[in-house]
Amino acid sequence: MRIATAHSFDSAIDQLAQRQSQLDEAQLRLTSGKRVMRASDDPVDAARAERALAAVSRAATSLRSLEASRSAMTQLESALGDAGDLLQTAREAIVAGGNASYDSTQRQMLAGQIRGLRDQLLAVANRDDGAGGYLLGGQGSSAPPFLDSAGGVQYVGTRGANSADPATEMPMTMDGAATWMSASTGNGVFQTQSVTSNGSAWIDTGSVTNPAAITGSSYQVQFSVAAGVTTYSVLKGGAATAMTNIAFVPGQAIQFDGMSFTISGQPSNGDEFDIVPSHPTLSVFDALDKAANDLAAPTQTGGAIAQATSANLRNLDSVLARMLGSRATAGEALIRIDAIGNRLDSASLNGQTERSKAEDLDMATAISDFQSKQTGYSAALKTYASVQRMSLFDYIKT
Fold it and tell me: Given the DSSP bridges, would you call strands 229-236 and 253-256 parallel, antiparallel or unpaired?
């Protein structure tokens, strides 16, 4: 079998080119640090690396959303803290207004202070998030969510809340109506109120003694004074009950149907106090408006002042409790954000580790392989160069 000289040279050149390509490939892997640079290098590990990369990308996206939620909840928690401080100041003003030594001028000054606090609270309620939205805008609002109108402050935002990321469900906003406009009236179960009080009597907030006995009905406590004797009768929904013409003892608790309350002072004939079910309809701003108006009212009797102070303190305590509850919710969200952030950081690290295991190069093995290919290529190149220089005249000389 004859092998042409040209074929031998071509074969040698092909071998050199192949060795050169392998050397370039090894050098490229060393430079990139990757064992799998194309799916054809290792289909199984290439797919494994792609899955790991997708997991890292998802974690990075969720972390960006989480940081947006963290910023919003931090601002919201701060805003609710400011609101709580303002409400506490208003409460102190109401307590001061109940001082029997204060005259109407001093109470009017306190009323002015409460109105100023109300305006500050409205600004807090409409605080923006620095990105064109509102912290208490619910599901979104292009305008301030609380509108001060002639009938009082109204919530004009969209009820609900926005989330930063469906995967983590971390909030970006809070339902302003639920926080600022939905406190419970009364003590949360029933509400006591004065309907007619011509004497010095006033009723306290009351308490629940037996939750199972609560009926949810409305009651009226009507007083009668005859021959210097004061009695009262309890009506349920306008109908007489067994509690009729009971002798009244100032400061002694009146109890029925799981409820207890105290009427202090001395009632007059025809005085009436109502006990009605509580409803989640008390607004922060309505509570402050009522407190300011009660303090500004001139020439009040001692009983009227005591009644107004008791009712206004009850209202302030209710809206303050609601505010503190919402602030606690924002704080819990921040705790959950920290926990989810740690979990996402771990997921990102695990994904990066898995990707590295799937496609990264073993540097020690790669360097050894590169040096081996480099040595082989150099030897082949020198051998080919030596053979290429030989000719018939070189053979004859030998």
Answer: unpaired
User: Does residue 20 have a pLDDT over 80?
Assistant: no
Residue 179 identity (one-letter amino acid) = T
* Ramachandran sector of residue 270 (left: φ over 0; alpha: ψ -120 to 50; beta: rest): left
Cα gap 357→82, rounded to integer Å: 51
- Residue ranges of alpha helices (H) inside 181-301 are 284-296
Is residue 41 predicted with pLDDT exceeding 80? Answer: no
What domains, with CATH codes, occur in the chain?
34-185+279-360 (1.20.1330.10), 188-278 (no CATH)
| CB-based burial label for 393 (10 Å; 0-12, 13-18, 19+) | exposed
DSSP string, 283-301: -HHHHHHHHHHHHH-SS--
Which burial class, exposed, middle or buried, applies to 95 when counting CB atoms under 10 A from its CB (0-12, 13-18, 19+)? middle
Q: Which of 87-96, 247-256, 275-284, 386-395 has the lowest mean pLDDT?
A: 386-395
At residue 68, what is the residue type? A
Distance of CA 212 to the CA centre of its chain: 34
Decide: pTM greater than 0.90. Answer: no
Rounded (5°) CA angle 154-155-159: 155
Q: Angle at Cα 36 formed by Cα 35 and Cα 39, nearest 5°? A: 165
At 116 the three-state DSSP class reads helix
Give pLDDT, residue 205: 92
Residues 161-185: what's their mean pLDDT? 83
Strand 253-256 vs strand 259-264: parallel, antiparallel, or unpaired? antiparallel
